[in-house]
Design the sequence.
């Protein structure tokens, strides 16, 4: 009876002490983990993905991957058998849902069906869960709140120890003790007592060490809290400075916009005022070229006429820029082939004079969704650019090739020529205002700029293909009708 008493006493004492040690260990783990988990980061993750299995791979989301790696490090460092996990409470469903875990496979937003009520009762303080039942078995657990920078609880972290494994280990020890007692009942009674006492002392020592570690953790938590308070104060100061800076930026931006609008209106009105005298001057040049017989004087008139034409086209380009930027878009289905044919007919004389071979490969029913006037202006600038810089290089006949095709929900238009090309040092500047792609350009450097802002106004894009130095190719991508 004495042996049975000591065996039973040893078993239940060891069981209770081990249980306390396990709960203290789990409590220390979760309290330490809350000090290194970013509550704001966790809240952003749980707010971003609201459905079950929205995350199925630990590397699917960078924030989830960060939390997973942190939990896994804590899991491995403490030699836990069960995964660490975080969870949030869904008030509409009246249940907890899992978020991040140290497990190899995520179980994001799975429902914690049979959760202990202590999770709600001690939601803001944390605690330990003595032996309890859940849908996954019987457990010993500890949990702690995860807080954001404002100190609000955004989630819980829980660490578990399977009670089945725990009790099996205890039963194995009990069986060993009973077996030993059966072989050595009385002779080793005192040895057994000494063993129990030693074990209790050892557990007490472990408990004391664990308490010391908990105290150290509390000191570290206080230090971290102090740092967090300083960070909050610094963040508040930065936010105040940002508000003042944003106000100043808004004020200056408003002035800049007003100045730009005034300048744009001035240029537009000035160009309109100049067009009248220029038209008169062009007409006078044409009359003079017919009446003047002196070759030198005729040459001067021709030079004046060329200069007048350059000014006229520059002013027209400035008007085009203004009209594109201020025009209200009227989107409609625009058939592409008739539009290209209309432009080619306008340049028919120039194409013949330069001996250019023009090929158009566009399906009759291919349409774009665009403002007709802007689309006409964009394509005119690009085709005019190809005609202007055509050349008989290396004995090759000049050509212009226009191809269009539908790719998914977009129309891709390519305009290619084998002219003098664009210098490699300037190919990244050609779409800028007053930039020229070659020294042979006689224009103001506004044609490609007009094309670019026109395409962007139509929700499209334009690119220069620089893969092949033997030809120049522009690619326009626009929405299909």
Sequence:
């Amino acid at each position: 009876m004495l042996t049975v008493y000591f065996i039973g006493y040893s078993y239940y004492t060891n069981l209770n002490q081990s249980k306390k040690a396990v709960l203290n260990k789990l409590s220390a783990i979760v309290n330490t983990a809350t000090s290194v988990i970013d509550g704001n980061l966790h809240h952003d993750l749980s707010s971003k993905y609201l459905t079950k299995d929205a995350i199925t791979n630990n590397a699917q989301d960078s924030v989830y991957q960060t939390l997973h790696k942190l939990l896994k490090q804590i899991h491995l460092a403490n030699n836990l058998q069960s995964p660490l996990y975080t969870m949030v409470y869904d008030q509409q469903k009246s249940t907890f849902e899992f978020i991040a875990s140290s497990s190899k496979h995520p179980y994001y937003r799975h429902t914690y069906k049979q959760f202990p009520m202590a999770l709600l009762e001690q939601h803001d303080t944390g605690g330990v869960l003595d032996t309890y039942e859940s849908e996954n078995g019987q457990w010993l657990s500890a949990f702690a709140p995860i807080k954001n920078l404002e100190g609000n609880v955004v989630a819980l972290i829980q660490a578990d120890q399977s009670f089945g494994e725990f009790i099996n280990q205890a039963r194995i020890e009990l069986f060993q003790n009973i077996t030993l007692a059966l072989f050595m009942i009385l002779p080793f009674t005192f040895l057994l007592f000494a063993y129990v006492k030693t074990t209790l002392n050892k557990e007490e020592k472990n408990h004391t060490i664990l308490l010391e570690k908990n105290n150290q953790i509390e000191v570290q938590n206080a230090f971290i809290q102090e740092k967090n308070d300083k960070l909050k104060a610094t963040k508040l100061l930065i936010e105040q400075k940002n508000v003042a800076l944003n106000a100043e930026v808004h004020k200056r931006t408003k002035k800049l916009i007003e100045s730009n609008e005034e300048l744009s209106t001035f240029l537009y009105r000035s160009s309109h005022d100049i067009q009248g005298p220029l038209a008169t001057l062009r007409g006078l040049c044409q009359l003079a070229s017919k009446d003047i017989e002196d070759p030198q004087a005729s040459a001067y008139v021709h030079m004046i006429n060329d200069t007048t034409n350059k000014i006229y086209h520059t002013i027209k380009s400035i008007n085009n820029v203004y009209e594109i930027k201020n025009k209200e878009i009227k989107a409609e289905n625009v058939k592409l082939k008739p539009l290209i044919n209309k432009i080619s007919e306008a340049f028919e004389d120039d194409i013949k004079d330069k001996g250019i071979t023009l090929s158009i490969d566009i399906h009759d029913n291919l349409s774009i969704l665009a403002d007709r006037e802007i689309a006409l202006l964009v394509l005119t600038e690009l085709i005019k650019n190809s005609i202007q810089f055509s050349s008989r290089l290396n004995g090759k006949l000049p050509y212009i090739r226009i191809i269009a095709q539908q790719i998914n929900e977009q129309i891709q238009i390519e305009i290619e020529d084998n002219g003098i090309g664009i210098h490699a040092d300037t190919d990244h500047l050609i779409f800028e205002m007053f930039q020229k792609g070659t020294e042979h350009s006689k224009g103001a450097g506004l044609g490609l700029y007009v094309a670019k802002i026109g395409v962007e106004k139509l929700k499209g894009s334009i690119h220069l293909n620089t893969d092949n130095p033997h030809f120049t190719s522009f690619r326009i991508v626009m929405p299909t009708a």
